[in-house]
Amino acid sequence: MLSIKSKLICAAICTALSGGVAVAAEADLQKQIDEVRGALPKFAIPMREVGDRFQNIYFAAKDGNWALAAYMAKYMNGSMNPASVTKPAEYKVWKSFYDTTFAPVNKALMAKDWKGFEAAYTAVITDCNGCHQGMGYGFIKVVKMTAPADVGIDYKTIKSEPGDVPK
């Protein structure tokens, strides 16, 4: 039979060994987290989707497909979610932009206000270019395209309401 002292020593050894396992498990978990973070797109890839959706919004609104325009705006914002993990400082700039600078575009979309939309959309282009310049990407200049980025979508024949976008 083990003495109390032997039991305490045995318990201490077991605790120490299990602590080592926990540390190793934490290190492995951190490695996995870092690998997932490394596989997520940083900022440039989601911004490419933002650019395409931004251009598509214009043509959808212009042709009265307000739901498509609202859908593009919603998922334009959602496409930046990986950056909240991979580039948190830059993501804060994006979030502020979308919540404030882009808000008049969303407001005009919801009101189906073409004139207000066009003015807000044009202002956003200027703001985008100013932001690009300020962040060191002045070589990226947004322009209003003459055709949508995604030509495989019917922008014209479907008339819709901005509230038609599923939640």
Task: Characterize this entry briefly.
This protein is mainly α. Helix content is 69%, strand content 0%. The longest helix has 36 residues, at 4-39.
Given the C-alpha coordinates, what overall shape results?
Answer: elongated
What is the beta-strand fraction? Answer: under 5%
Helix count equals 7
Q: What structural class do helix, strand and pairing data support? A: mainly alpha
What letter string, H or E per element, gives the SSE order? HHHHHHH
Regions with little confidence, pLDDT below 50 for 5+ residues: none
Tell me about the biggest sheet?
Answer: none
Cα(first) to Cα(last) distance is 67 Å
On the 0-100 scale, what is the average pLDDT?
Answer: 87
Helical content stands at 55-70%
Cα-atom radius of gyration: 25 Å
Number of domains: 2
Quantity of strands, as a count: 0
Would you kindly provide a written description of the structure presented here, covering whatever features stand out?
With about 170 residues, this protein is mainly α. About 70% of the residues lie in helices and about 0% in strands. Helix 2 packs antiparallel against helix 3 (about 65-80) and helix 6 runs antiparallel to helix 7 (about 115-135). The longest helix is centred in the first third of the chain and has 36 residues, at about 5-40. The chain is elongated, with a radius of gyration of 25 Å. The termini are far apart. The model has no long low-confidence stretch (mean pLDDT about 85).
